[in-house]
TrEMBL record:
Residues 6-287 form the RmlD-like substrate binding domain. This is dTDP-4-dehydrorhamnose reductase. It comes from Streptomyces caniferus. The keyword NADP applies. Pathway: Carbohydrate biosynthesis; dTDP-L-rhamnose biosynthesis. Its EC number is 1.1.1.133.
Amino acid sequence: MSVPWLVTGASGLLGHDLVARVRRDGEDVLAPGRDALDITDTGAVRRMIAAHRPAVLVNCAAWSAVDDAEAHEREALLVNAEGPARLAAACRDTGTRLLHLSTDYVFPGDGTRPYREHDPTGPCNAYGRTKLAGERAVLSTAPEHGHIVRTAWLYGAGRPNFVRTLVRAARTGDTLDVICDQSGQPTWTADLADLLVRLGRAAVAGSLTTRLHHATSAGETTWYGLAREVFRLLGADPRRIRPVPAGALCRPAPRPAYGVLSHEGWAPGPLTPIRDWRAALAAALPDLMRAESTREMST
């Protein structure tokens, strides 16, 4: 089924892969930059959506600087909550299906089992609070048209990120100190983009019966475990990765110690969740290595 798409935040890590994924299928996608669509501007949002009437809008735009949000929570709230509320209102009025990206940070991060979709929330930092406010705004404003897609630990070729840093370090011979006491699910943006396309099509077809979706890779690891796996796959010595506790790094915003998301919610539906993080990482590394080679040639 071919549907017209609108992607906000298209220049970001996920937006880059999502736009490419939609275009690969030959479907129409509008990917306005922030200069063309500021999601905090009610008038601009309504004009854009009314003019193009997309079948699916995927909101990848976000204030994602976790530490900066501690000092600028009001500004982060404007982007992460009030902006999505404006998008949801416009989508409700045009019948557009809205897929709003959220995060594992909406949970407190002190769990011992993967968080289910309807487990109690309780963010431990300002970024998580603003993203939770965005979820609530979307679901209350567009209960028939809004879907929340929680993800975490994204990496990809489109922009610099932790895994690309590891690829670079493996080449240079650097030794890295990496946090060993925070657990999560490394998720390749290409895999997430594919799932978002399937979600969008299912939403348009009316086959989605739930509004909360956990979209991370299967399995779990720590940042330290991820780093060692990258080095192992690249033939670098994993002993060059040194484990350090999160408390050793003085950062303004606390991070959840456990951010693993359950995929039980996919069981009754027509779609399947993302594959295991190790398999995805092995598939992603060639793209990330090419991206790093291109960066080196341009500097």
